[in-house]
Prior knowledge:
Largest sheet: 2 strands, antiparallel
Strand order of the largest sheet: 1-2
Helix content: 25-40%
Strand content: 5-15%
Shape: globular
Amino acid sequence: MKKCLRITAALLWILVGNLPAMAQTNNDHQTSTQDGDVHFPNCAAARAAGVAPLHAGEPGYRRKLDRDGDGVACE
């Protein structure tokens, strides 16, 4: 259930973030690209967006944010 809520929150964040202008940086340093990918420059930005920890395959997950390589970033 918790994972479902995180995914739903991330998807809503993508939709809301892309409405004003695609590929612009939002106030919390999250960047949305034109193809809908979410990019967090660091874990602080992911936490501020309320989506941390990020699991492999979820929007915003990047190997760079997963220090121990276990498929969970910003834990």
